[in-house]
Amino acid sequence: MFEQKSKSLPPVLPKHIGIIMDGNGRWATKRGLPRTAGHKQGAKTFGDITAYVRDLGIPYITAYAFSTENWKRPKDEVDAIMNLLREYLKDAYRFEKENVRVHFLGDPAPLDRDLQEMMADITEKSRNNTGITVNIALNYGGRAEIVEAARRLVQDVRSGLLREEDITEEALSARLYTAGQPDPDLIIRPSGEHRSSNFLLWQSAYAEFIYMDVLWPDFKPEHLDKALWEYAARNRRFGGI
Ligand code: IPE
Ligand code: IPE
Ligand code: MG
């Protein structure tokens, strides 16, 4: 728990919010626009909501931008999403000076070389920033992440860095993309779907899930406030009484 700035918000805020940014396609289709127009508006919403979360003093946000399963979509749509990412990354260089730490969750290998380079560069340049950490889950899958962590554990045991009896929850957590970060307390999914779609499977063990009917491109700070109030009213027991 920590102090928060706004007076109109609940006294207890999450330290880490996850957002499954869903509903872009439906938002566009409803307006007779191509699905890519929804992704464009969704990217704008992402920028606005990140800025808002930062103003609230919440230290971590993770946004699900592209899943390991999203490659199944038509190439045109995937290309359009990657181009929006390219625009976002060009702009993200300013975060270095704005004390925002940017981090990517997922396997960058299948992405275009220029995107990979920008991602690595921004991560490196913002590494020591102490303001909000913005995690962007890109080519991210919760199962793939756990498999990768298991592989690293095996390597570390083989190389003598780790003993088999030291394979613990902490040791596995330390090999996830979110190593060193607190687990998400709250996961918000707009768009009316009630599922995790492979998002932060390990880290969300005790997250509060809030599902909202609004489509992501229509998501406003008021929707976040509403989720924060609902979060504050929940009784988190972590298995206790
Ligand atoms: C989320 O919106 C964006 C990505 C998954 C990349 P969708 O594109 O899934 O929008 P809907 O669910 O089809 O409306
Ligand atoms: C989840 O949304 C992935 C992202 C928001 C990036 P999807 O639209 O891909 O999820 P499903 O297919 O409805 O489960
Ligand atoms: Mg969707």
Automatic annotation (TrEMBL):
Classification via InterPro entries: UPP_synth-like, UPP_synth-like_CS, UPP_synth-like_sf
Coiled coil: none
Keyword entries, A-Z: Magnesium, Metal-binding, Transferase
Co-factor remark: Binds 2 magnesium ions per subunit.
One GO MF term: ditrans,polycis-polyprenyl diphosphate synthase [(2E,6E)-farnesyl diphosphate specific] activity
Binding site for substrate: 23-27, 35, 39, 67-69, 71, 73, 189, 195-197
Keyword presence, Transferase: yes
Annotated positions binding Mg(2+): D22, E208
Catalytic machinery residues: D22, N70
Top-level taxon of origin: Bacteria
GO biological process: polyprenol biosynthetic process
CDD domains to which the protein is assigned, alphabetical: Cis_IPPS
Pfam annotation, one family: Prenyltransf
Cofactor(s) annotated in UniProt: Mg(2+)
UniProt keyword Metal-binding, yes or no: yes
The EC number(s) this enzyme carries: 2.5.1.-
UniProt enzyme class: transferase
Protein function: Catalyzes the condensation of isopentenyl diphosphate (IPP) with allylic pyrophosphates generating different type of terpenoids.
Protein family: Belongs to the UPP synthase family.
Subunit architecture: Homodimer.
NCBIfam families in alphabetical order: PRK14830.1, uppS
Protein name in the entry: Isoprenyl transferase
Name of encoding gene: uppS
